[in-house]
Amino acid sequence: VTEITLQPVRRHDVDAAIFFSDIVVPLQAVGVDLDIVPGTGPVVPQPFRTRADLDRLPELTPDMVPDISAAIAAVRRELRPDQALIGFAGAPFTLASYLVEGGPSKNHENTKALMHGDPELWNALCERLAAIAGAFLQVQVDAGSDAVQLFDSWVGYLNRRDYQRFVAPHSAAVLAAVEGRVPRIH
Predict the structure, then answer these.
(1) How many CB atoms lie within 10 A of CB 144?
(2) Kindly report the CA angle at 154 between 150 and 158, in degrees rounded to 5?
(3) Is there a contact between 94 and 152 (Cβ–Cβ < 8 Å)?
(4) Using CA atoms, how far apart are residues 177 and 179, in angstroms rounded to an integer?
(5) pTM for this predicted structure
(6) Strand pairing of 84-90 and 41-43?
(7) What is the pLDDT along the chain (186 residues), one digit of tens a residue?
(8) CB within 8 Å of 15: residues ≥ 6 apart
């Protein structure tokens, strides 16, 4: 992780490094059964579709991601004082999409069906994911990140109304977890 994070910094002498992490690392850390399949991406063998599935998403605590803290500290030691380190986490909508679809999707049919068919369950799922992503960013800030980025790979598949109703509040909750501590990018 350290080497991959630092390669573009060394090659291009840029003023910041973006912490190299996969979007599903926090899900793996809390025990979600998933595999990153070459040529496909994250695959969840048992998709999340019911209220009972929420029990498979415990709270993320710093002791679940010690390698993240260690990697950030190692990157920080290699950067010059004038070079920033940007932390990284996946946004609730994208994480939820992987969980609900069971993997990457072209049109997110199951995700949209859950959002519209059971908004209460959708919001409960995204609240859990927001807490996990927020805790993941807090770990990175505590370890030395100078700024954080919340990345939402799949949100472009939503219309503005659905984004504002079903996604924006959860992304805002993630960013609120580090508000006032570091600059935030969404």
Answers:
(1) 17
(2) 110
(3) yes
(4) 6
(5) 0.95
(6) unpaired
(7) 999 999 999 999 999 999 998 899 999 999 999 999 999 999 999 999 999 999 999 999 999 999 999 999 999 999 999 999 999 999 999 999 999 999 999 899 999 999 999 999 999 999 999 999 999 999 999 999 999 999 998 899 999 999 999 999 999 999 999 999 999 999
(8) 82, 83, 84
